[in-house]
């Protein structure tokens, strides 16, 4: 539909007067550079010159200098849970990892950047289920032909199932001489499994940890190939 564009009218202060009564209802329109500069200068002058009675009372506190920021950060770090801080850092600064064929077993997870010792590598993500559901799913996965199990026990009642909904952490292989270890941490009253680096990890080095399976009569052979290999996972 065609409609007539309202003519530009200017107020006494030089700014455009909106015929419809609202700037949003008139859609997109260009503003002259002179009018834009005039508006910016007026707003800047208003911001720089607050009323005399509120200039001191509402003055915001000066930001701390760099040494004070470092001191506050160190005190904050010392008083709060380090696991929570590290987990927040893991969410914002994820390690560069990739999964590809492994000489240990099937697929494996490899580092694409150097990882220092005692750093969070990746969180083991999956679906939280109970023991009864885990037993049912384990039988169902066997019937479906899924040979590998991606279930990780958190505690006596909770198990993380990453078989069909997980991340790269489920590709980490077992090793009797691993370079990482798994740790259960509590973040906002929720238990999470995080993989920590046990030592310095080089680029293209495979990430491994000890599964620590319970001892059973039916043994699962270990293929890690380390010097102190126990021969079985359980």
Automatic annotation (TrEMBL):
A Gene Ontology CC term for this entry?
A: Set1C/COMPASS complex
Provide the coiled-coil residue spans. none
Q: Which GO molecular function terms does the record list?
A: histone H3K4 methyltransferase activity; RNA binding
Q: Its gene?
A: Setd1b_0
| Source organism of this protein record | Cnemophilus loriae (Loria's bird-of-paradise)
- Does the keyword field hold Methyltransferase? yes
Q: Tell me, what is an example of a GO biological process annotation in this record?
A: methylation
Where in the cell? Nucleus
| UniProt cross-references to InterPro entries, sorted A to Z | COMPASS_Set1_N-SET, Post-SET_dom, Set1-like, SET_dom, SET_dom_sf, SET_SETD1A/B
Q: What is its main location?
A: nucleus
Q: Which Pfam families match?
A: N-SET, SET
Q: Where in this chain does the record put each Post-SET domain?
A: 218-234
Q: Which UniProt keywords apply?
A: Chromatin regulator, Methyltransferase, Nucleus, RNA-binding, S-adenosyl-L-methionine, Transcription, Transcription regulation, Transferase
Protein name (Swiss-Prot/TrEMBL)? SET1B methyltransferase
The SET domain is annotated at 95-212
């Amino acid at each position: 539909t065609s409609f007539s564009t309202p003519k530009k009218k200017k107020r006494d202060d030089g700014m455009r007067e909106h015929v419809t009564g609202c700037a949003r209802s008139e859609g997109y329109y260009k503003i002259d550079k002179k009018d834009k500069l005039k508006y910016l200068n007026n707003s800047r002058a208003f911001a720089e010159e607050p009323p005399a009675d509120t200039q001191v009372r509402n003055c915001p506190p000066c930001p701390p200098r760099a040494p004070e920021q470092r001191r506050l950060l160190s005190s904050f770090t010392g008083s709060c849970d380090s696991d929570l801080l590290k987990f927040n850092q893991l969410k914002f600064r994820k390690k560069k990892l990739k999964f590809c064929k492994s000489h240990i077993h099937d697929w494996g997870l490899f580092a694409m950047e150097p990882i220092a010792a005692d750093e969070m590598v990746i969180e083991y993500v999956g679906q939280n289920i109970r023991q009864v559901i885990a037993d049912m799913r384990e039988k169902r996965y066997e019937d479906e032909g899924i040979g590998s199990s991606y279930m990780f026990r958190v505690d006596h009642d909770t198990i993380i199932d990453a078989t069909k909904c997980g991340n790269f952490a489920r590709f980490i292989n077992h090793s009797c001489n691993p370079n990482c270890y798994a740790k259960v941490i509590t973040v906002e009253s929720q238990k999470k499994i995080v993989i920590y680096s046990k030592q310095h990890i080089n680029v293209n080095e495979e990430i491994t940890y000890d599964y620590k399976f319970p001892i059973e009569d039916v043994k699962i052979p270990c293929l890690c190939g380390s010097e102190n290999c126990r021969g079985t996972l359980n």
